[in-house]
What does this fold into?
Amino acid sequence: MVSNNTTKDAGEGGSPNADPTIGVEVVYARQAAQTLLKLKAAPGVTAGEAIQRSGILRLRPEIDLSVNKLGIFGKPIKAEQALGDGDRVEIYAPLIADPKQAKKKQAANRAAKGGAESGAGPETGPA
It folds into this structure.
């Protein structure tokens, strides 16, 4: 498991009167590797801006924001969503198969196997 942890600290070490910042994370996970990047940003930063500022698009060139969906802790969001302190922007890998179609295919396969093995099927009596 590979983890790329990078922290970008915007506004740290400044004067006490500096604008407050919020801490957010940007994460992208695949089976082979996970990338988690932490950054500080101004309140009101959007998910899209955080993704751009984090540098994850350079580290993981397979990410295509026109294809990959986004979320915060499992809840789907749009790139325009404003973030709060502690939010984790998740970039989801595209689905390989449509879950509804996969379930239908599995059900059809089970029905075909069940009917062939037991010889069972709807009973029809004499008409």
